[in-house]
Amino acid sequence: MSHNLDTTVGDFIDQLSALDRDAVLRLAVNPFFPMSHHVRAVVATTDAGGRSVVYIADGQQEGHLPPEVARRLTWHPDTEGPRRARRGARPADPDQ
Question: Using an 8 Å Cβ cutoff, are 60 and 37 in contact?
């Protein structure tokens, strides 16, 4: 029985086969605070239902996920965030 959120190894290989084989592989983690992680390992096992499952383990955190990646994953809207107003000197109070 397949769950609608499940991606098979075959699906993943098909997606990767269209890409540059020399490209660096990273994991995008946590849509609310998007970070980039190195891939540490790939482990195959079976779940409680006897299905074959492959886990991709994250390794060391690399840093923030580029905003373009977060947008393409639909984790962030396709807009720029509000810009902070610059803090400057307050105008002099003419009554003082």
Answer: yes
Fill in the DSSP letter of residue 21. T
Torsion of CA 56, 63, 16, 41, to 10 degrees: -20
Kindly report the average pLDDT of the chain as a whole number. Answer: 85
Rounded Cα distance between 14 and 8, Å, is 10
With residue 69 as reference, give the H or E element that holds it: helix 67-72
Place of tokens 């994250």: 58
- Cα 65 to Cα 13: distance, rounded to the nearest angstrom: 23
Alpha carbon separation from 52 to 6, 41, 55 (Å, rounded)? 12, 17, 10
- 54-88 pLDDT, tens digit per residue, is 999 999 999 999 999 999 999 988 765 555 666 66
Q: Match 């609310």 to its residue by tokens.
A: 32
